[in-house]
Design goal:
binds pyridoxal-5'-phosphate, seven-stranded mixed sheet, three-stranded antiparallel sheet, alpha/beta, 14 helices
Length: 389
């Protein structure tokens, strides 16, 4: 049975070209980039080349890129580092109710430490209004953090407009672009951001490596302290193979992203149209078109998300109920609750995310088996029987 992977938002497979670029840095090119000798100079050069690849993709300067261990560390650094570095300005952060846990959890921790946090709610399609962000700003606001696109429902936020408002007020603006980098254009100047997080495993690079873009002049104190790596902004010996892989992965995305996004949009819209046509009581989560090209998210009434996943798995199809972090537990998604979905619909969600190695036949197979799965599960649901009669 062919295995079909429709969970690219959870993680992407490492591109073979990326792996090939990384391999020498696990063997003969092993030097510590902080060492003065030739071994060290060789890996230092590789890191700087990767930094340039990422900076060039984002429209940033090389020195504005700080390598980290991934999206989570980048988000934590953006929050803590900016507050620590600007304590005299205030103690208030504005974010949204639909951020990834890698923002929500540190924000809640900050509240326990005495900071003020405002969580702005999105509308029913998951869109955050720039006016609502503006209304939440106070004289004590140091940082605003709004994700570029949501990892569960795919809605793309008006980052450019929010950035314009926030930066006019002299407040720093961070965006979690973990789901967008490598999938849609991301330019730090066009988006009006001071800080931006990305993670290589979401764009066909390796896991455990990412970076934080920090606009020149933004005061961010280090989150990890120790050695003087990354210009004293992030201690610890660099993950050289990972960084090389991240650079290569972004370079490939630069070449292929536009074509891939176009193809994925066709598949996405076909899935949305066909599922809505073939199955009753199905609701699309997220914005109908201002959404990631590769994201489909439905709530299927009278069915449990986990049951759909298990049944799809029997056909070799890998999907998700939402974010990888929440799909392991049975708590309703904070994102779906925030857009006003009732609990029953939150528990019946299914996310399909497409990518570089998706084929037409994968979409065909999903559409062939999914209506039968839903019918089988609904046949066991007394609520569905009541609804029909
Ligand atoms: C929007 C978003 N932010 C942050 C993260 C965390 O990234 P990482 O797994 O690299 O720590 C993820 C991962 O799922 C994500 O989707």
């Amino acid at each position: 049975m062919e295995k079909i992977y429709l969970d690219y938002a959870a993680t992407t497979p490492t591109d073979p070209e990326v792996l090939e670029a990384m391999l020498p840095y696990f063997s003969e090119r092993f030097g510590n980039p902080s060492s003065i000798h030739g071994f060290g100079q060789e890996t230092r050069k590789a890191i700087e080349a990767a930094r340039s690849q990422i900076a060039s993709f984002l429209g940033a300067k090389d020195e504005e890129i700080v390598f980290t261990s991934g999206g989570t560390e980048s988000n934590n650094t953006a929050l803590f580092g900016t507050l620590w570095g600007n304590a005299k300005k205030g103690n208030h952060v504005v974010t949204t109710a639909i951020e990834h846990h890698a923002i929500i959890e540190p924000a809640q921790f900050l509240e326990k430490q005495g900071y003020q946090v405002t969580y702005v709610k999105p509308d029913a399609q998951g869109m955050v209004s720039p006016d609502d962000i503006a209304a939440a700003l106070t004289d004590k606001t140091v940082l605003v953090s709004v994700m570029h696109a949501n990892n569960e429902i795919g809605t793309i936020q008006p980052i450019k407009e929010i950035g314009r408002i926030v930066r006019e007020r002299g407040i720093y603006f961070h965006t979690d672009a973990v789901q967008t980098v490598g999938h849609i254009p991301v330019n730090v100047n066009e988006l009006n951001v001071d800080l931006l997080s990305l993670s290589a495993h979401k764009f066909y690079g390796p896991k455990g490596v990412g970076c934080l873009y920090v606009r020149k002049g933004t005061r961010v104190l280090p989150f990890l302290r120790g050695g003087g790596q990354e210009n004293r902004r992030r201690a610890s010996t660099e993950n050289v193979p990972g960084i090389v892989g991240a650079g290569k992965a972004i370079e490939i995305c630069g070449r292929r992203m536009a074509t891939e996004a176009k193809q994925q949009t066709v598949w996405r819209d076909r899935l949305i149209a066909e599922v809505s046509k073939r199955i009753d009581h199905v609701y699309l989560n997220g914005h109908p078109n201002l959404r990631l090209p590769n994201n489909v998210n439905f709530s299927v009434e009278f069915v449990e998300g986990e049951s759909m996943l298990l049944n799809l798995d029997l056909f070799g199809i890998a999907a998700s109920t939402g974010s990888a972090c929440t799909s392991g537990d049975l708590e309703a998604s904070h994102v779906l609750l925030s857009i006003g979905r009732p609990h029953e619909l939150c528990h019946g969600s299914l996310r399909l995310t497409l990518g570089r190695f998706t084929k037409d036949s994968h979409i065909d197979k999903f559409l062939e088996v999914f209506p039968g799965i839903v019918a089988k599960l609904r046949a066991m649901s007394p609520l569905y029987e009541d609804k029909k009669s």
